[in-house]
Amino acid sequence: MTATPLTLYASPMSLWSGRARSYLIKAHIDYREEPHASQHFMEVVLPKAGGRRGIPTLEFPDGRVIRDGVAIVDHFEAERGNPHTPATPRQRIAALLFDVIGAEGLVRPCMHYRWHFPEEDEFLLHHFRPITPWGGTAEMTGEARIRINREVVTPLFGAAAEHSEAIEALYADVVDALDAHLADVPYLFGGMPSIGDFGLIAPLYGHLGRDPVPLRILQTRAFNLLRWVERMNRPEPDIGEYADRSETFLADDTVPDTLIDVLRAFAVDFVPETVAAAHTINAALEETPPPAGSECERGYGNAEFDMPGASISALAQPFRFYLLKRVQDAVANLDGTDREAVLAMLDEANMTPVLDARLIRDIGRQDNLEVWL
Ligand SMILES: N[C@@H](CCC(=O)N[C@@H](CS)C(=O)NCC(=O)O)C(=O)O
After folding, report:
1. Final residue belonging to a domain, choices 28, 59, 79
2. Any residues with Cβ below 6 Å from ligand 1, and which?
3. Which residues of the chain register pLDDT less than 70?
4. Ligand 1, from 9, 11, 13, 14: best to mutate by most atoms within 8 Å of Cβ?
5. Given the CA of residue 370, which atom of ligand 1 is nearest to it?
6. Other Cβ atoms closer than 10 A to 243
7. Which of 8, 11, 13, 16 to mutate to test the pocket of ligand 1 (most atoms within 8 A of CB)?
8. What's the farthest any 2 CA atoms get from each other in the chain?
9. Beta strands in the chain (DSSP E)
10. Peptide bond preceding 56 in cis form (omega within 30 of 0)
């Protein structure tokens, strides 16, 4: 008799669902995916998910629920002995950093390519209709949420239409750097996916790897990157085209120069945004200190910063710092030559300033919600 599988509440087009789905696939964990819209989801799962209707959310056959893609990966990594978390210092820190970048660093191209191309409307409606919740109000229909995402959320996340050219140019640099790196290795750190790969597949699958307009970019200029997107969604290693087919991280804590180039391309807006968001959130925390244990909201004011060709104002989101603290703590735990090697790597990648971009309050998790400690 086969055991009842897990249920992954998700949507193919959802940004953050991509991380959890890819992890379950690569870990060979049996699951079934369905929209977060049924009566069962709304009445049974949602209350256990802290009342926050987000995807991905996972339900176990015994009724336990984990909301949030990071928490889902954390759960299985811990249970399985952290097979996808590199143990050596440079690879470990870089993987943790890619996890943050994946969660937060490509949101602008994701929003731009999804919401600024009317030829995608029918495609989007097709995907939004099934996630209209059971018993939902008029604002929750596919049509209404498309309007809200386009008119409110996209500019709120810093992807206002006037920044389109700048966003496309920077995204092209990131795509080219990733494509060059993946010409030599099938995953970020060699022959198996890391937590950094799982972070990065989030934006690169749901939005940038299957919405019609950005998919075309991968199909026409980034074949290695397109293959990585496919590979991350297949249970087998899917690395047949590479000469070295060992299913391990690269030996000797190697972080190839091509991966440093990728980090440098990301740093262009990730660094100024992170520094600006820390200031904005800290100012809000000082002005109105949230009680310990209270829910951490999605955003606290706007981060203002410059990137090539655009002055951006984007919602300052604490979740970035929940993940970044893992990088900062891991660096703080190093000493001697390990520490020197990691600091040199981050410096070469233009990422040093993010080590000091900290919030004055820590974030924890309680009852499936991020809370202020
Ligand atoms: N930090 C969460 C973010 C999840 C999230 O915001 N998901 C979006 C879709 S990609 C969502 O659920 N939005 C509300 C909704 O669709 O009802 C994670 O990484 O899982």
Report:
1. 79
2. 14-17, 53-56, 68-70, 103, 319
3. 1-2
4. 14
5. 1
6. 5
7. 16
8. 59
9. 6-9, 31-34, 57-59, 65-67, 302-307, 310-315, 363-366, 369-372
10. yes
Host domain of residue 303:
89-372
**Distance, first Cα to last Cα, the chain:** 44
Q: Which atom of ligand 1 is nearest to the CA of 36?
A: 17
What are the C-alpha distances in Å from 8 to residues 30, 209, 293, 316, 356? 10, 20, 27, 28, 36
45 alpha carbon – ligand 1 mean position (Å)? 15
Whether this prediction's pTM lies above 0.90 is answered by yes
Q: Is there a single domain that holds both residue 60 and residue 161?
A: no
| pLDDT per residue as tens digits for the range 286-330 | 999 999 999 999 999 999 999 999 999 999 999 999 999 999 999
CA–CA gap between residue 98 and residue 24 (Å, rounded): 19
- Residue identifier of the C-alpha nearest atom 12 of ligand 1: 54
Nearest to 18 by CA among 60, 69, 80, 71: 69
Q: How far is the CA of 56 from the centre of ligand 1 (A)?
A: 6
On whether the CB atoms of residues 290 and 323 are closer than 8 A, the answer is no
Domain boundary pick from 79, 105, 138: 79
**What is the predicted pLDDT for the residue at 2?**
58
